[in-house]
Amino acid sequence: MAKWTENSIIQKVRGLLPGGEFLEDDCGILRVESGQKIVVSTDSMQEDTHFCLDWHPPHLLARKFLKMNLSDIDASGGTPFAFTFNLGLPPHFEETWIDTFLKSLGACAREYSIKVIGGDTFGSPRGLHLTATVWGYADRHLTRFGLEVGDGVFIDGPLGLSDQGLRALRSGERWTRESCSPGLSHHLDPQINLGLGVGLAKIPQIHACIDISDGLSKDLGVLAEINQKTVRLTRSFNESELHGGEDYLRLFTSSLSLEELNQRFSYPFQQIGQVEAYQNAYLLDSTGQKVVDCTFKHFQN
């Protein structure tokens, strides 16, 4: 077991993350083309709240940690280009774990062509703490506003896989290199269609877009509420599909049909709902009953 100093961790970050060699000052510099919008996303992960060390291998945790921020940037129509990274470590932590985590974080950053421009390290006696802030640029910024009556509601992949993986972990299943169920794989290392948001932003008939991270019943309910519309689901969903979190799908609305979208993109789109004028509830199931948000609540669960 090693006892760390800020300088020893910073030296590892400088050596293992793209852009780390330029981490000499307290502030980083962002450069974008004139007229482009800057989009920013920040997310944190706390041990025993967002992950457990005994079931989340460090190389997969690093990828999930970075990609969950990239997902927000992409859903906004943005292309990521830089990030900051805060690392809170317990006083004694295995060096091999830290090296594996940082090497994987660096590889993931290189995969998506982004560089670290700053961050912080600190002692965290109550467990491992991770925070990333990612910057991107966008020509058109997709937001949660813009739902129009008659829009279809679409997603770009299957719902509920991450929740299935979480249930498997709680039942004792663990990741191995030799075999891993689709749900377990998606929970530990979510497969996100990064780049789709930029393509959606180029189409004027795409009216709103977010990523599904908290669960469909919450995220779609919030989308409907801030637009003061009702969304009626067009099929039934099981509990994992409706309330499970961390799927990181694009959830968007459009006046285009599913067939028209499929002609423009090669993603497995599904239409899951229809936007209607407000009808005393923001989210209705396929039978017209109000959908109750049963997703995880940080300050209640």
Please indicate the percent range of residues in DSSP E strands (runs of 2 or more): 25-35%
Runs in which pLDDT lies below 50 for 5 or more consecutive residues are none
Query: What letter string, H or E per element, gives the SSE order?
Result: EHEHEEHEEEHHHEHEHEHEE
**Secondary-structure arrangement, i.e. CATH architecture of the largest domain:** 2-Layer Sandwich
What proportion of the residues is helical, as a percent range?
25-40%
Give the termini separation.
33 Å
Structure description:
The protein is α+β, with helices and mostly antiparallel strands and 301 residues long. It has two domains: 2-138, PurM-like, N-terminal domain (60s Ribosomal Protein L30, Chain: A); 152-284, PurM-like C-terminal domain (Phosphoribosyl-aminoimidazole Synthetase, Chain A, domain 2), CATH 3.90.650. It is built from nine helices and twelve strands. It has helices at 6-16, 58-75, 95-111, 161-170, 182-188, 196-201, 216-226, 239-243, 258-264; strands spanning 2-3, 37-46, 79-89, 92-93, 115-123, 129-138, 152-155, 206-212, 229-233, 249-254, 270-277, 283-284. A six-stranded mixed β-sheet has the order 8-10-7-11-9-12. The chain has a four-stranded mixed β-sheet with strand order 2-6-3-5. A two-stranded antiparallel ribbon has the order 1-4. The longest helix has 18 residues, at 58-75. The mean pLDDT is 90.
